[in-house]
Structure formats: C-alpha cells, structure tokens
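Kindly inspect both lines:
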Amino acid sequence: MDFVPKKVFFVQGTGYHKSELGSFEQALRDAGIERFNLVRVSSILPPNCLEIPKTDGLAQLKAGQIVHTVMSKISSNEFNCFLYASIGIAKQKDKKAYGYLSEYRFSGVNEKRSGEIAEDLATEMLASTLGIQFGLGVDYDKNKEMYKLEGKIIETKNITETATVKKDGEWCTVLAAAVFIL
C-alpha cells in the first residue's frame, strides 16, 4: 500500500475543561478531528500533495479512520496564560519536490510572532536541504524575501491558534494541525 499522502488540509481548535485531557478533546472537537484515530508524523509535506479546504478534507474521512497529522499542541491551567500553537508551511516551486511543515507552541509571544517562528522554522528546514544559506539573526521578512529570490521556495505561510486560560484551575488546550489524506 502507498502511504504517501495525496492531500492535506489544515485545522485549528481551542478547548476548555476541568481536566487537561478533557480540554484536548474539546480542542479536537473545535478543530473537527475528534472522531479520527490520529497518528502524529514528522514534518515532510509530500511531493504533489494537494492542499484542500477543511470541509472537503473532513468529508473524505470516516469515523475511526487512522489519520496522519503534523500537530502542534499546548495546554495550561495557569490563569491568564496566553497559549499559541502554530504549523509553519514551506513549499517548493517544483511541485514534484517535497516541502516542510513545522510545529511551534509557546506561551507568552504574540500570535503574529508565533506564526512567523513556525513559518521560519519550516522554511529554514527546507532551505537547508536545498543548499540555501539561512540568514541567522536576520529579520524574518528579509529571510522570507531571500528564499523567494532564490527561486526554489515559492510559498511560506502558517496556521496559528491562540487562546487565554480563562479561569484559575481550568485547563485550556490550543492546537493547529496539518491533516493528511492518503
């Protein structure tokens, strides 16, 4: 059987509950992927993998199905804690070549910065495999332009979910995920 995914879609979710597991389940429900058996995989975006809308992707999956994901997740029960979970995406110009996905989770940075870090991580991993020198200590936007100027990396983006722990002792989980369809 060919286990190379043909399609990918992206989801995000937030959950609150008195237990950490319960908040994770609520986040899965919010993302729409609670009914699948999720298997976490590493960070390769397969060649020729078509990005599709979430609604189309969910319609192609069955309850109980084993589904591969690249997932970023963070949980806390510390009152007023800001949580961020991001997936960074970097694609090559050549659609027959693979790309990278990265997971980044943190508390305390802002949403925009969390997404930029995830995006930069995915781009850095892809750039290194292509022999493109990564600009350490260089501004995020300058790095992004450098990659595009090389002509090999044509798209970078991120999906980020954020939330704040609302009540002392209540758990909050945020997640962002790339969901693969074989």
Q: What stands out?
A: The mean pLDDT is 88. The chain has one domain: 7-181. Strands lie at 7-17, 37-40, 44-45, 50-51, 66-76, 82-92, 99-107, 153-164, 171-181. Residues 111-129 form the longest helix (19 residues).
